[in-house]
Amino acid sequence: MFKVGDHVVYPYHGAGTIRDIEEKDVLGETHSYFVLHFPLVDVKLMLPEKKIDGSGLRKIIEQDELDNVVEALKNGPELPPSTSHFSKETENLLKSGSIFDAAHLISSLSKKQAGRSNGLHIQDRNHLQKAKQMIASELVLVNNMSEEQAYEFIDSNLLELS
User: Is 88 in contact with 110 (CB distance < 8 Å)?
Assistant: First the structure.
């Protein structure tokens, strides 16, 4: 299970830290809540302990898994996700909480962007930015990088796409 001080990833929010476990009285019942803080977006979230198992919450990756992230950034799927405004596939990749899904999405959308003279559709640009933010938030905690260094890490591993 998780404890105060653990660095974790919560799907679609990115990486943060468990700051506290609080007891709250709700309708006469006492419940435990994990208090998560996401520093890159400066958000605090309270997650009920009884919903942790189904929430997708996971510990951040280990340092030795960074090479796999680089590989995913460089070698994502050739076919980018649908440009449909309601792309379920793209949303599901972001909601999975997997750093590797986010890296594949960045790779695919970057390839798509490189192949288009007029850039990406607004929804694709938003998905690309969200995926980069999710990876950057985890890199900051895994590799003790600054936010700027994390984004540079992502972009430098995409250079071969141009």
Answer: no
Both tokens of 6, joined, read 């653990």
In order of start, what are the domains of the chain with their CATH numbers? 7-59 (2.40.10.170), 63-161 (1.20.58.1290)
Alpha-carbon distance of 157 to 111, in angstroms, equals 13
pTM: 0.86
Q: Are 140 and 146 in contact (CB under 8 A)?
A: yes
| Pair 107, 122: CB distance under 8 Å | no
Alpha-carbon distances of 22 from 14, 50, 122, rounded to whole Å: 22, 13, 39
How do residues 57-92 score in pLDDT, each as one tens digit?
Answer: 999 999 999 999 999 999 877 655 555 544 778 888
